Amino acid sequence: MRGKIFTYWNRSESGPIMTEKDFDLKVYWPAVKKVVKKYNIEYNPDEVVPQSVDQINDIYKAARELFLEVGVFNVTTGRRITWTEKELDDTMKKFPSEMTVGEGRDACHFDHRVLNDPRPANCLGRVLGPQDPALLDRVFYAYASEHRIDHCCFQGIIPYINGAKVRPWSPHEISAELKRVSEMDHARRRAGRPGMSDWSSAPVSLQAAMAAMNSDSGMRKGDVRHIYIMPHLKTSYEQFTRTMATFAFGHHQWGIGQAYVGGLSGSPNMAAVVSCAELFAYCMLYNPSALGLWTADGMYFATTSRTALWVCFHAGAAWVNNTNTFSLDGAPYGVVASGPCTETYFWEHAAAAIGDAVTGMNSGGGTGWQSALTMGATPIGARFASEVCDAVCEAQIGWKEANRLVNYCLDKYMDRMDAHTLHEGGKRFDECYDVETCEPTQEYLDLYNKVKNELREQGLKNLG
Amino acid sequence: MAFEKVRDAMLATDSELVVKEINAELAKGADPKAIFDVLTDAMGEIGDLFSEMKMFLPEVMLATEAMNEAFAILGAEMQKQDQAIENLGTVVIGTVKGDVHTVGKDMVTGTLNTAGFKVFDIGIDSSPQDFVEIAEREGADIIGLSALMTATMPSQKDVIEFLESKGIREKYKVLVGGGVVTQEWADEIGADGYSKDAVGAVDVAKRLVGR
Ligand code: B12
């Protein structure tokens, strides 16, 4: 165990007591405003990719100060857990700079990456949103056999089972989780990658998650489950309980710094500081084996908007340049707004992957339609993002050129995102993938190649 | 501009200052209704800035607090003069049973509040009884139900069926939303309105109360 997390958990019983609203409005919000002002962190919409090392270092310093001042609010006990500077520094010094998830030769290794890292990055695939239960194994197999994806969140939601809707804490939730885990395990075996790590956390109840948390059901110790920090800088006993359950079975935990631009995290410059501070919270409370950034807009759920990408790239670069932890998974953290089989689906993935590459993060993708509509997950997005990311890393294009390219991609879809219509259109998995071979249709491949060609014309000549 | 200081205090989302400026104006004999109108306009401005992501949720929450404090003072004054405070309608909103996602519901609370609705936010993981009890107590016009997960969409239907079972379905307009919710789902469960986002929620809510 790095750091004394149980000692810190116990501060939930002794820290300052207050209402959640007072925490939000009287503790957290004034502190966010203060640190952003102190370090004069400003949002420049034209510079989506950071252009100044000083600025990202300031974001890091501001995040550290914010975290130390505010701590984490435990909503169960109504108390604030806080840390001394020394405790934070001691944990961060010992925090692993490498981590392996998954098992055997299918394991995925995360080492520390640096800004403008020339090496290829890891790739996260995510199956999100409701799925047709009859086709779940097809979708999972398509992801498991996508060779670019080296760690995968097989989180497809099963809406009904045994003739009933799957509702939280119902027995059907356990059935659904057992089905999901066994289909996931079959898919990865059939794809010849039994040790590929599964990162899903589909059930609402911990009981349902725990019912499948054993090797008989198909889950492995190399798998990873989500523990969360709630917006913003909040936790609960339920999260500690989840953490204990993962410790008990001996598998891993993942966590993400989140931001809702316009929501409680405020403006993009504030949100970057807040999401970076949330990464500290994970390190201090949950002993995570994987970290990432899921930054989104608050009015229209989008991880690839100008503001959401600004936040992700700035927070990520701040963390990468000032800590020695294993690498982060960056934008779009598995989900875009466009539906599958549209051109903009690829432009969103490209914008995210380019910024991830130059800020030292891993790429990924897959799910469309804001992960809201049925059968919206296709692995080709992750493949494409990984190819773009690795090409950018290899070409060493630098921040200025990366910023130009990201802006080029944004121009392809920001008007529709601003109008809240980008999710319209697109095709379901079974309309744009052959459900027998689990390969994309020619129509889908044509769009993929079109965007690739255009990126090559834009200067990314080594994009294979 | 009339009552500029009151307006500025509101835009600064400073409830103490709002109260101070209101009291100063009332002491000068100002018409409480006129002050109230200025505050309502300022809230509208805040709502527009919020929709454009130029003002943020914590500020909207602070502005709402300031508005509530102003209500308390101005409402009492207006009552003395037999004037009534008008709002667009009363909304009881919450995230349904089993679901703790709060961000989207908070955004909708923000836009409805700033548009001039009186909003009671009952929080997360709320049962049909919770919604109905507060709606009855506050004489709500609209019940707003947020659900973010496939597994909790049926909880929206539960609220509608609970209203029906009590024979009070017709008293309320039911407005549904949240990431996974669609117009088709809203139609299927017999909701009165649906909106994909917090900005659209205001238009639909206005339509539901005939404004
Ligand atoms: C943030 C988040 C969380 C946070 C929530 C923190 C909080 N206090 O709110 C945390 C980490 C706690 C969390 C937990 C879980 N989550 Co979650 N979460 C999200 C995430 C990333 C964003 C949600 C959000 O805030 N969006 C931003 C807001 C602004 O958007 P919105 O809520 O949709 O609201 C807008 C509109 O829908 C509309 N609206 C919203 N409400 C209403 C109401 C009315 C009346 C109207 C008119 C309009 C309206 O207006 C809003 C603004 O425009 C989504 C991903 C996604 N695609 O949405 C997953 C997501 C909702 N979560 C999901 C899951 C599975 C979970 C967990 C089960 C994970 C787990 N095993 O632990 C738990 C469940 C906890 C529970 N019991 O509820 C899934 C649900 C999948 C599904 N189809 O069922 C999603 C979709 C992620 C995914 N892609 O897989 N989550």
List keywords for this structure.
heterodimer, A: 464 residues, alpha/beta, TIM Barrel, three-stranded mixed sheet, 16 helices, 16 strands, globular, B: 211 residues, Methyltransferase, Methionine Synthase (B12-binding Domains), Chain A, domain 1, Rossmann fold, 2 domains, five-stranded parallel sheet, 9 helices, 56% helix, elongated, binds cobalamin
How would you sum up this structure, described in words?
- The complex is a heterodimer of chains A (464) and B (211).
- Chain A is an alpha/beta fold and 464 residues long.
- Chain A has a domain at 110-328: Monomethylamine methyltransferase MtmB (TIM Barrel), CATH 3.20.20.
- Chain A contains 16 helices and 16 strands.
- Chain A has helices spanning 5-10, 20-38, 53-70, 85-94, 136-144, 171-190, 206-211, 237-249, 268-285, 306-322, 343-358, 380-395, 398-411, 414-418, 429-432, 442-457, and strands spanning 72-74, 79-81, 98-101, 108-111, 123-127, 151-154, 160-161, 164-165, 224-226, 234-235, 252-261, 290-297, 328-329, 363-365, 433-434, 439-440.
- In chain A, the strands form six sheets. Chain A has a four-stranded parallel beta sheet. In chain A, strands 2-1-10 form a three-stranded mixed beta sheet.
- In chain A, α5 links the parallel β5 and β6 (151-154).
- In chain A, α3 packs across α10 (306-322), α11 runs parallel beside α12 and α11 (343-358) runs antiparallel to α13.
- Chain B is α/β, with parallel strands linked by helices.
- Chain B has two domains: 4-80, Methyltransferase, Methionine Synthase (B12-binding Domains), Chain A, domain 1, CATH 1.10.1240; 89-208, Cobalamin-binding domain (Rossmann fold), CATH 3.40.50.280.
- Helices cover 56% and strands 10% of the residues of chain B.
- Chain B has nine helices and five strands.
- Chain B has helices at 4-11, 15-27, 32-51, 57-80, 103-115, 128-138, 153-165, 183-188, 198-208; strands at 90-95, 118-121, 142-146, 173-177, 193-194.
- A five-stranded parallel beta sheet of chain B has the order 2-1-3-4-5, with helices on both faces.
- In chain B, α8 links the parallel β4 and β5.
- The longest helix of chain B is centred in the N-terminal third of the chain and has 24 residues, at 57-80.
- The interface between A and B is medium-sized, with 37 and 30 residues.
- Cobalamin sits between chains B (98-105, 107-108, 144-146, 148-151, 175-180, 195, 197-198, 201) and A (128-130, 155, 157, 201-204, 226, 228, 230-231, 258, 260, 294, 298-299, 301, 335, 370-372).
